[in-house]
Amino acid sequence: MKTFAVALALMIPALAQDVPWQARLQYIEACSCDLFCPCYFNDHASHQGTGEHKCNFNNVARVVTGKHGDVDLTGLKVWLSGDLGSDWATKGQADWLIATFEPKATKEQKDGLIAILTKIYPVKWTSVQMDTSDIAWHVSPDGKTAHAKLGNGKGEVNLTRFDGSDPVHGAMIQNVRYFAATWNSPFSLYHSDHYYKGFGKNYQLHHANGFTITVESSSDGKRVTTKKAD
Fold this sequence. Notes:
Strand 8 and strand 9 form a beta hairpin. Strands 1, 2, 3, 4, 5, 6, 7, 8, 9, 10, 11, 12, 13 and 14 form a 14-stranded mixed beta sheet that branches. It contains two helices and 14 strands; from the N terminus they run βαβββββαββββββββ. The longest helix has 14 residues, at 107-120. By secondary structure, the protein is mainly β.
């Protein structure tokens, strides 16, 4: 079993040591649970309609602002597809992960963002693989829909907001922590249609769980400063 960082170190040189970092990321996220993720309130996921303790996910993040040491990460996008499996919360062990970066991402930027992601997701992965593709990422101005797609055709996410009793602002969940992030906004709830087909994996979900969220991670535990206030 290998940690995310160690597994990737087989393909890229490991960073000599931790350096100061901070990143603010916006996510379009979908998984195979029903709305909303039970694993935030229990010690396991619940695969849609089956009762299986697994979670196939497509997490698509764009870096609003970020740095790892002297490496600027602002504007990067990364697509994470995988399965958390049944033991991520009880044993810190997850099944598989595929990280897709855009062609424009430099080696230093990939290394830096990967290092930050290991802080946000402090679990071990049985299998980790890397891929490259253009990534489309869009949230509608009214917030009612969101869409992400891999240019190589391997994955796509479509979110439709769950409006709840307030269709203007939509339904949200507050005071729930996103994995090991330093800070996160409320979860804005959506139903998702999404798929991933590649590296021998093939899943397609309809009317499953989804959300958008803003996440921050920093080496000093402080909020990430941005030029424009939320």
